[in-house]
């Protein structure tokens, strides 16, 4: 049996049942996709999953899960015998017993259980008790009158179950940042549709891989929509060439992407667009440029990385596995990038360009 703990969900009063059910359903769906048999049961602040131990790490990746422990289920009285058998041959420097009694009708309190089982272990094995920094933690949870005994607690991704917060369209570029932005939205319970603008570079391969990796955090495989960026950008580039303002290409490129993303979001019933922008990280991600890009699109844009440093983003990318996909293919410079790019777009100049774009029906 695998014990699944979820923190934040339990706090959301009134929504708790709905959230628990969603999380249990999501766990079952992910396990099924991975070809692992697994049946869930919701029980007083825990989800119990009847599945083989190999399911543990898969379940830990499900948004909403705080921690996971593969456990052995038994009557309370059977614990000493079980520990005797299981822990024979181990010789930790120190140990402690940590009990949580989820079933408050159980006759012994958590402290009584800690003391009783702790004393047994000392007597049987002669190990030292260390409540601060033990090498071995014997975990016991009392659920529905039964004792669940375990020795590890694997950290989950946390957050909220996917599907509890509606849908978003995430712009995934083939860089490090945008997959992390999409992950953070999944983690907060949003369903994600991935959108990539293909520029004929290796980036598409990275994105395909990234979407596969991100799908591990989602009950359904993430849908990837690929658009031909040449076709979308061509008319914008023509206007800029006519105005002799090629240095505005990167800003208009983003506007063209966001505009198309908004159309797709509307078609898909998604409530927002997600990008991997982080303030000032590259010369083009300035507040002025982000301002111009944002006011050009009539749809909510979410930038979950806006206040993150590069190191923080890289560390999440490594943890969730998308960094490796980025490293797999050599980086390609954007084929549309002019020699000089605008870093602090002037709004008056933009209005002038916007008027021309409007004449062409592009904005
Ligand atoms: N070809 C693309 N397809 C889809 N989205 C894109 C593409 N290029 C950029 N984006 C979106 O625009 C955001 C900003 O892109 P930009 O190239 O300025 O930044 P970046 O620091 O390289 O970001 P990333 O590391 O995510 O590529 C990206 O995070 C992504 O959400």
From TrEMBL:
Keywords: ATP-binding, Cytoplasm, Nucleotide-binding, RNA-binding, Thiamine biosynthesis, Transferase, tRNA-binding
UniProt xrefs under SUPFAM superfamilies: Adenine nucleotide alpha hydrolases-like, THUMP domain-like
EC assignment: 2.8.1.4
Subcellular location: Cytoplasm
Single GO cellular component term: cytosol
Top-level taxon in the UniProt lineage: Archaea
Pathway: Cofactor biosynthesis; thiamine diphosphate biosynthesis
GO biological process: thiamine biosynthetic process; thiamine diphosphate biosynthetic process; thiazole biosynthetic process; tRNA 4-thiouridine biosynthesis
Domain THUMP: 53-153
InterPro entries cross-referenced by the UniProt entry: Rossmann-like_a/b/a_fold, ThiI_AANH, ThiI_fer, ThiI_N, THUMP_dom, THUMP_ThiI, tRNA_STrfase, tRNA_sulfurtransferase_ThiI
Enzyme class: transferase
Binding site for ATP: 171-172, 196-197, 254, 276, 285
Predominant place of localization: cytoplasm
Residues spanning the membrane: none
One GO molecular-function entry: tRNA binding
Annotated Pfam families: ThiI, ThiI_fer, THUMP
Reaction catalysed by this enzyme: [ThiS sulfur-carrier protein]-C-terminal Gly-Gly-AMP + S-sulfanyl-L-cysteinyl-[cysteine desulfurase] + AH2 = [ThiS sulfur-carrier protein]-C-terminal-Gly-aminoethanethioate + L-cysteinyl-[cysteine desulfurase] + A + AMP + 2 H(+); [ThiI sulfur-carrier protein]-S-sulfanyl-L-cysteine + a uridine in tRNA + 2 reduced [2Fe-2S]-[ferredoxin] + ATP + H(+) = [ThiI sulfur-carrier protein]-L-cysteine + a 4-thiouridine in tRNA + 2 oxidized [2Fe-2S]-[ferredoxin] + AMP + diphosphate
Family of the protein in this entry: Belongs to the ThiI family.
PANTHER family named among the record's database cross-references: TRNA SULFURTRANSFERASE
Function: Catalyzes the ATP-dependent transfer of a sulfur to tRNA to produce 4-thiouridine in position 8 of tRNAs, which functions as a near-UV photosensor. Also catalyzes the transfer of sulfur to the sulfur carrier protein ThiS, forming ThiS-thiocarboxylate. This is a step in the synthesis of thiazole, in the thiamine biosynthesis pathway. The sulfur is donated as persulfide by IscS.
Descriptive protein name: Probable tRNA sulfurtransferase
Taxonomic source organism: Pyrococcus furiosus (strain ATCC 43587 / DSM 3638 / JCM 8422 / Vc1)
């Amino acid at each position: 049996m695998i014990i699944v703990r979820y923190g934040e969900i339990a706090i959301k009063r009134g929504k708790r049942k709905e959230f628990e059910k969603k999380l249990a359903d999501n766990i079952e769906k992910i396990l099924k996709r991975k070809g692992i048999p697994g049946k869930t049961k919701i029980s007083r602040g825990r989800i119990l999953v009847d599945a083989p131990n190999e399911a543990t790490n898969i379940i830990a990746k499900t948004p909403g899960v705080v921690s996971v422990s593969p456990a052995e289920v038994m009557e309370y009285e059977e614990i000493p015998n079980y520990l005797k058998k299981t822990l024979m041959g181990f010789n930790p420097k120190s140990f402690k017993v940590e009990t949580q009694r989820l079933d408050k009708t159980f006759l012994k309190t958590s402290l009584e259980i800690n003391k009783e089982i702790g004393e047994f272990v000392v007597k049987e094995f002669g190990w030292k008790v260390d409540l601060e920094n033990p090498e071995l933690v014997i975990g016991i949870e009392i659920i529905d009158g039964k004792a669940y005994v375990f020795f590890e607690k694997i950290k989950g991704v946390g957050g909220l179950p996917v599907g509890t917060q509606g849908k978003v369209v995430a712009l995934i570029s083939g860089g490090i940042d945008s997959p992390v932005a999409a992950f953070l939205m999944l983690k907060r319970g949003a369903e994600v549709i991935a959108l990539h603008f293909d520029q004929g570079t290796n980036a598409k391969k990275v994105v395909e891989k990234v979407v596969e990796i991100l799908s591990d955090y989602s009950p359904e495989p993430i849908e990837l929509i690929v658009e031909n960026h040449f076709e979308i950008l061509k008319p914008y580039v023509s206007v800029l060439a006519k105005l002799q303002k090629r240095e505005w290409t990167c800003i208009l490129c983003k506007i063209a992407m966001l505009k198309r993303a908004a159309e797709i979001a509307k078609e898909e019933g998604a409530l927002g667009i997600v990008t991997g922008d982080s303030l000032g990280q590259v010369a083009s991600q300035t507040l002025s440029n982000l301002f111009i890009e944002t006011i050009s699109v009539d749809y909510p844009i979410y930038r979950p990385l806006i206040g993150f440093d590069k190191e923080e983003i890289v560390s999440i990318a490594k943890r969730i596995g998308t960094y490796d996909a980025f490293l797999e293919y050599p980086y390609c410079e954007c084929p549309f990038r002019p020699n000089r790019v605008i870093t602090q777009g002037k709004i008056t100049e933009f209005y002038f360009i916007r008027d021309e774009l409007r004449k062409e029906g592009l904005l």
